[in-house]
Amino acid sequence: MLFQKDASVFTDLELLAHYRKSGDLRPLTTLFSRYASLVYGVALKYLKDRDDAKDAVMQIFEKLALSLKDHDVVNFKSWLYVTTRNHCLMQLRSQKSKLTEFRTDFMENALILHLEEEPEMEQNLVKLEKCVSELDGEQKQCVTLFFLREKCYKEITELTGFDLGKVKSYIQNGKRNLKICMEKNA
């Protein structure tokens, strides 16, 4: 049995495999405890509140128990970072929508202000879409996989056949070219 030995000698992938096979939470708990401080740090960076960050750590652990049964994770640390970041961003969006609802109830001009901002946001999204379409084939492919489909570098190398250095270069150059294009079309 896995836990007759010291669990710290097992790799992330071994702990993941045991969890997926058995459904036993002990390997997942061991694995998560290795990166709990990373999760807390990322949550604190985004949420800017210690209690909210602690809550996020617990919520993410609960989410992992379900998601890891369906997702085949190759690099747990990277996957966990992206999962944490996305969780925090969703939480911030949720708070922002609640704040907008609050303002709408108490400010008579809130609807007018919102309607004035909407065309600008729509214009920026249209510009971004146009700029992405103007990227070179490899840059466009890598940027889309990384930012829109939230794939890690390794997954992108497997999907595209590009080596890791090329993937990083395409993403970095693609980001730079998007920034230049957006500024040019501003």
What is the straight-line distance between the termini?
61 Å
Number-wise, the strands total: 0
Q: Label the overall shape.
A: globular
Q: What do we call the CATH homologous superfamily of the largest domain?
A: RNA polymerase sigma factor, region 2, helix turn helix motif
CATH architecture of the largest domain: Orthogonal Bundle
Structural class: mainly alpha
Overall tally of structural domains: 2
| Major pleated sheet | none
Into which percent range does the helicity of residues fall?
over 70%
CATH fold label of the largest domain: Rna Polymerase Sigma Factor, Chain: A
Overall pLDDT metric: 82
CATH class of the largest domain: Mainly Alpha
Radius of gyration of CA atoms, rounded to a whole number: 21 Å
Could you spell the SSE succession in H and E letters? Answer: HHHHHHHH
> Treating each run of at least 4 consecutive H or I residues as one helix, how many helices?
8
Strand content: under 5%
Detail the poorly predicted runs.
102-116
